[in-house]
Amino acid sequence: MFLAPVVARYTSFILLVGGPLVASAAETPDRLPALNAMAEQASVVGVSSGGYMATQLAVAWPERFSGVGVLAAGPWGCSQGSLSVALNQCMMTRGGLPDLEDLEDRRERYTQNEQAGDQAALGKLRAFIWHGGADNVVDPELVELLAGQWRQWLAAPEQLKVVRNPTAGHGWPVRLHEEETVGPHELGNCRQGGGSHVLACDEDVAREMLDWLYPERETVSPESGELVAFDQSEFAVKGLADTGYLFIPASCEDEACPVTIALHGCQMSTNAINDTFVSHSGLNHWAARHRQVVLYPQIDSSLSNPQGCWDWWGYAESLWQQNPLHDTREGSQVSALIAMLDRLQTASTDAD
C-alpha cells in the first residue's frame, strides 16, 4: 500500500484528494515526518495574513526558497510591530500609505544584524502576487506597494508576475476540479468572500502561481495523494494550533520532492472552515501532477489573535519587546515554520 511507512502512523486524520476532512476517535496525530524532501526549490505561498507571513519568511530566509506567492496582502514590514498601524495603514489607508523607504531601512538593519537574508539571495527568487480589485479588507493599493518592494529586491523584472482580478474580493480564488465535491455554501462569492474567503471565481490561481514559481518543473500523469494530519505541538509557539496538515503525492514516498508551504489567512484555518482551504485551494490537485509536497501549518484563534491570523504585527512575541522581531529570523512563528521545513527535508534515517 503506497505511503504505508509514513501514512500508517497518521491514525487521526486521513483524506484523499477532494475528500472530506474527517476525524476518527480521540487519537493524536503523529509527528511531522522526515521525507528527505528536496533542499532546493522550496516555496512559500499565502493569502491575507498568510501572504504577509509568506513574504516575512522569504525575506528572513531567502536562501531556503526559490519562490514566494502572495495573495491579498500588503508590503513587507508594514505594521512595524504595531496593531494600530496594521489596522490603519496596512489593511486600510486611513492612516496614510506606508513609507517604503522606511521599510527598506528596517530590512537593511535586519540584514546587517543577520536577522534577515542578504540581498543577493533575495534577488534570486521568483515572486507571484495576486489581488482582487474589489478587495475591501486589504486595500489594493497596498498590494501594489508590495509589488514595488519585490521589483526593488529582485535581480530582474522577469522574476515577478503580478495578477489583478478587477472584480474579485478578498481571498483565494479557485476553479474546482472534477474530483472535488464541495458545496457552494463552502465557497465565498467571488466579490464578497463569504465565510471561507475561498472564492468561487472560476480562476485557478494555484495553477497559475505554481507554473510561475516552477517554470521548468516536470509534469507527470495524475496520481493519487493523501492529506494527513500531524502534531504541531513539538513546534509549539504562541498562535500555532495543535494540528497541521501535509499533502503527500504517492511518488514522493520514494523520491525527493520540493516543498510548498501554504499559509491560510485569518478565519481560514481548519478550525474555522474545516477543509475548505487545505482540500480545495487547488494546490493539492497540481501538486499531485508535479510531485510537490504541500505543508499546511495551522494557526488557532486566541484572545490576542481572535481571528486566527498569522503573526504579521507581533502578537506572538514577548510583550516586553518595544520592537517585536516577528518579521525576522528570530520571530517565533518564522522559526517554527523553518523547523517544519527542516524536518521535511531531513532523511528519515537521520530523524530516527
Key phrases:
alpha/beta, single chain, disordered N terminus, globular
Would you kindly provide a written description of the structure presented here, covering whatever features stand out?
The chain has helices at 4-7, 49-60, 83-89, 100-112, 119-122, 140-153, 205-213, 270-273, 276-280, 283-287, 332-344, 348-351, and strands at 14-16, 43-47, 67-71, 126-132, 160-165, 172-174, 188-189, 198-200, 225-231, 243-249, 259-263, 293-296. The protein has 352 residues and is of the alpha/beta class. Helix 6 links the parallel strand 4 (126-132) and strand 5 (160-165). Residues 1-26 have low confidence and may be disordered.
What is the quaternary state of this protein? single chain
Spatial gap, N to C terminus: 22 Å
Strand/helix succession: HEEHEHHHEHEEEEHEEEHHHEHH
* Total of DSSP H or I helical runs spanning 4+ residues: 12
Q: How many strands, which pairing sense, and closed or not: the largest β-sheet?
A: 9 strands, mixed
Strand order of the largest sheet: 1-9-10-12-11-2-3-4-5
Low-confidence stretches: 1-26
Shape: globular
Rg, nearest Å: 19 Å
- Give the beta-strand count: 12
Strand content: 15-25%
Helical content (DSSP H or I, runs of 4+): 25-40%
Give the topology, please.
Layout: H1 4-7, E1 14-16, E2 43-47, H2 49-60, E3 67-71, H3 83-89, H4 100-112, H5 119-122, E4 126-132, H6 140-153, E5 160-165, E6 172-174, E7 188-189, E8 198-200, H7 205-213, E9 225-231, E10 243-249, E11 259-263, H8 270-273, H9 276-280, H10 283-287, E12 293-296, H11 332-344, H12 348-351
Parallel strand pairs: 2-3, 2-11, 3-4, 4-5, 6-8, 7-8, 11-12
Antiparallel strand pairs: 1-9, 9-10, 10-12
